[in-house]
Design brief:
This protein has 411 residues and is of the alpha+beta class. α1 runs antiparallel to α4, α6 packs across α7 and α7 packs antiparallel against α8. The radius of gyration is 40 Å and the shape is rod-shaped. The two termini are 50 Å apart. The N terminus is likely disordered. The structure holds adenosine-5'-triphosphate and magnesium ion. Magnesium ion binds next to α7.
Length: 411
């Protein structure tokens, strides 16, 4: 069945969304995991380098000045190799002996430089424990001039730590923009289809209806027709067809909103529906005031109320209570609450009921609420949502409309 296909399409679409999300999470997680692995490797390398550096320094300081040139040369090679890892050498009394790879402006005063180095030592201490350098005095055989080497990750390593997060954020932002653009064009296309179909339907219905009207008028003057009630019924049906055409033509153009009494409109729809539904359904319309005005397009609004009420009757299986409450909000809004005592909506399905094609009925198209949502949100700038629902107890749909802002207006 075609409608079942439509329903499955929705299910598949939301499944696809989860698959895409899962793949994105796997790619994101994998990228972070791999970069962390690289970071750890690099970190190990930097740490062993800095240990070698400290050892070399200790060794150089331990040797007497007359040491052979080769060792001096090797030591210097190692010491001057370090041009990326920031480090500071300080003794236990806080005297700073040297610093490497730390940005210091030559115009700074000594005090400022000292302050900067000391605050860096404090933060370095948190990252790694300092390495102790204890050179041996050759004449006494005892350590002298004990110093501590403080260090932190090189700028490259720090950048690499943040890199995957920056990269993933950029990709996420790009993905989001692409998704929005795609969604926008999809919605625009849907709009064109809705509007196009509606216009075409109204257009196509127009000709046969006016011809039918002409035929009815012709028959009315025919003395051969005995049963006039047939003509009256025909007239009613053609009138209804005309109303349907008006609805479609309104959907296909920018509909005119007028200030109308919602109570009267709702009563009118109920009066129309009453003879068409089971007498075991009790119908009641209640309002805060006798008249409550809001901005609506009559033909479209009636369509919405009709759709929501029909769903309510379906949900009650032809027996129960249908109640419409019209309320006036303090903020220029009007609420129309439509409650039934039907079977309710499964919590997992509440979000889907407005999707075109979503239906749980054998003979449903799943278009009633999609159309209602469109009419209320796009044409009335209002809202429609499931206000409450309990399985096996009933559902309340709420429609929010706008009132005229001009307080001097007297209806
Ligand atoms: N008052 C309600 N109580 C319980 N379920 C509801 C109610 N209103 C809507 N639903 C659920 O939402 C689904 C979608 O409603 P919608 O009016 O869009 O389509 P439909 O009634 O199935 O078909 P149609 O296109 O003929 O209106 C229904 O099939 C039903 O499962
Ligand atoms: Mg319906």
């Amino acid at each position: 069945m075609a409608k079942r296909d439509g329903f499955n399409l929705y299910e598949n679409k939301s499944n696809l969304k989860w698959v895409v999300l899962a793949i994105s999470v796997i790619i994101g997680g994998g990228s972070i995991f791999y970069t962390n692995f690289l970071v750890e490797k690099l970190q190990d390398r930097e740490r062993s380098f800095i240990r070698l550096y400290a050892k070399t320094l200790e060794f150089t300081l331990s040797e007497s000045v007359t040491i052979n040139q080769d060792i001096n040369f090797i030591s210097e090679e190692i010491i001057y190799q370090n041009n990326s890892i920031p480090m500071i050498i300080m003794d236990s009394l806080g005297v700073i002996y040297g610093a490497r790879n730390i940005e210091i402006d030559s115009s700074w005063t000594r005090a400022r430089i000292n302050n900067k180095l000391r605050s860096m030592v404090a933060s370095m201490k948190k990252d790694y424990p300092p390495i102790r350098i204890a050179p041996i005095d050759q004449s006494t055989g005892q350590p002298y001039l004990v110093q501590y080497l403080y260090y932190k990750n090189s700028a490259l390593l720090t950048q690499l730590t943040y890199y995957p997060y920056v990269q993933l954020s950029v990709i996420a932002i790009f993905g989001f923009i692409a998704y929005m653009a795609f969604n926008y064009s999809r919605v625009a296309e849907q709009n064109r289809v809705w509007v196009g179909m509606a216009k075409e339907t109204a257009h196509q219905l127009g000709t046969p209806i006016s011809s039918l009207m002409a035929w009815i008028e012709h028959l009315k003057t025919d003395p051969g027709i005995k049963d006039v009630t047939i003509l009256e019924e025909l007239d009613k049906d053609v009138h209804k067809l005309g109303l349907i055409t008006e609805r479609f033509s309104n959907i296909g153009s920018v509909p005119k909103l007028t200030n109308e009494d919602i109570m009267a409109e709702v009563e009118r729809v109920i009066a129309y529906l009453r003879p068409r539904i089971s007498s075991k359904v009790e119908m009641k319309v209640r309002g805060m005031n006798e008249q409550i005005f809001a901005q609506i397009n009559v033909a479209l609004f009636e369509w919405v109320i009709e759709n929501v009420c029909k769903n309510a009757v379906d949900a009650m299986g032809g027996e129960g209570k249908l109640e419409i409450n019209v309320l006036e909000g303090s903020d220029w809004r009007v609420f129309v609450d439509i409650s039934d005592t039907g079977k309710g909506i499964n919590p997992s399905k509440v979000k889907q009921v407005f999707n075109p094609g979503f239906t749980t009925k054998q003979r449903g198209w799943g278009l009633g609420l999609a159309l209602a949502k469109r009419i209320i949100e796009n044409y009335h700038k209002g809202k429609i949502y499931v206000k409450s629902t309990t399985v096996d107890h009933g559902t309340t749909f709420r429609i929010v409309l706008n009132r005229l802002h001009d307080s001097s207006y007297i209806p």
